[in-house]
């Protein structure tokens, strides 16, 4: 028993564990208790997936992310697609138009060059599809046994249009919560490939760029309050982060959350909650009620938002807490996950 490990261990453990990279409570504690004090800041509510900076009179979004997914290639995508779309989507959640990326590769000694070339081709194709350029980069090689084939880091810069101000502090009671489509496909696709699971219906990752969808939403009104792509920790983590950052409560109608039947069946079989499973091509938006119908229509008219749905609302009650109303008429608290149900999903 002494050799057992868990992705969500006791919080007083003195060493880094897998749960620290899961996007849940352990990740937040690592940032707030270790990293922010070292970097000179202690404002967890201001932390988002990209930073907004002013430079030369322009408002820029800047983001960086590292990708260590296993396996490198999975149904619906690869680490190359993730490296582009993950960073592009982080920029888009600030309302920015993604423009340029950097690419850093960490290669393990012994990995086949054909594998590296395949990752590079996927990354280049994803960049072209997202309308961004890879303009700089770096490559390092580590000894055999000190990596996992290929790791990728991408950083990106985008331009934020005038009048766009997306941040949790703008969320107010009465706002409507909208998701752009069905949740859970990415995490289940990764797990099925990793564990060699086979379902009657194939499940593919939803990995995709969201910049065009965000532009369509902003064309309806720049007065969106906040956007978030629910990656690590899934929809539950994204909602909890926004509730905490805004000091408001969120009520979700559980049956309104779109979940593909194959994903729902796989989660039921494996004891997973789809609201906590990662996505790589979906967003959640907090929209003023007066604009909700128009924004929803614009989302459904876009290929990336055809299955968009209103799933909840913001309330003044239980600030900082997310509550789901179940199909049986009861309620349950949707906590921030401690670690991650499925490690290494991005």
TrEMBL record:
Residues 173-318 form the PurM-like C-terminal domain. Signal peptide: none annotated. Transmembrane segments: none annotated. Pfam families: AIRS, AIRS_C. It comes from the Bacteria. Residues 49-160 form the PurM-like N-terminal domain. InterPro entries: HypE, PurM-like_C_dom, PurM-like_C_sf, PurM-like_N, PurM-like_N_sf. Belongs to the HypE family. This is Hydrogenase expression/formation protein HypE. The lineage of its organism: Bacteria, Bacillati, Actinomycetota, Actinomycetes, Kitasatosporales.
């Amino acid at each position: 028993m002494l050799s057992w490990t868990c992705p969500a261990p006791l919080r007083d453990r003195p060493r880094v564990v897998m749960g620290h990279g899961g996007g849940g409570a352990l990740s937040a504690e690592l940032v707030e208790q270790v990293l922010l004090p070292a970097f000179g800041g202690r404002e967890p509510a201001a932390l988002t997936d990209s930073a907004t900076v002013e430079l030369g009179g322009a408002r820029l979004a800047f983001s960086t992310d590292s990708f260590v997914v296993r396996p490198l290639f999975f149904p619906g995508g690869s680490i190359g697609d993730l490296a582009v779309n993950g960073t592009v989507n982080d920029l888009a959640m600030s309302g920015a138009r993604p423009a340029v990326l950097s690419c850093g590769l960490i290669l393990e000694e012994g990995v086949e060059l054909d594998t590296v070339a395949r990752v590079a081709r996927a990354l280049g194709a994803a960049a072209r599809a997202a309308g961004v350029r890879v303009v700089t980069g770096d490559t390092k090689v580590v000894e055999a046994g000190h990596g996992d084939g290929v790791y990728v880091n991408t950083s990106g810069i985008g331009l934020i249009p005038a009048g766009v101000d997306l941040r949790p502090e703008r969320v107010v009671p009465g706002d409507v919560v909208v998701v752009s489509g069905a949740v859970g496909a990415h995490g289940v696709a990764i797990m099925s490939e990793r564990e060699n699971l086979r379902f009657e219906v194939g499940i593919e990752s939803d990995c995709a760029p969201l910049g065009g969808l965000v532009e369509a939403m902003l064309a309806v009104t720049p007065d969106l309050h906040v956007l978030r792509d629910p990656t690590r920790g899934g929809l539950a983590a994204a909602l909890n982060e926004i509730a905490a950052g805004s000091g408001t409560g969120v009520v979700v109608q559980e049956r309104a959350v779109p979940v593909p039947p194959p994903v729902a069946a796989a989660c039921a079989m494996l004891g997973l909650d789809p609201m906590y499973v990662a996505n790589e091509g979906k967003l959640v938006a907090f929209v003023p009620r007066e604009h909700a119908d128009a924004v929803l229509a614009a989302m459904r008219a876009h290929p990336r938002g055809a299955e968009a749905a209103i799933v909840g609302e913001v309330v003044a009650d239980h600030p900082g807490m997310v509550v789901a109303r179940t199909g049986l008429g009861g309620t349950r608290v949707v906590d921030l996950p401690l670690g991650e149900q499925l490690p290494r999903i991005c």
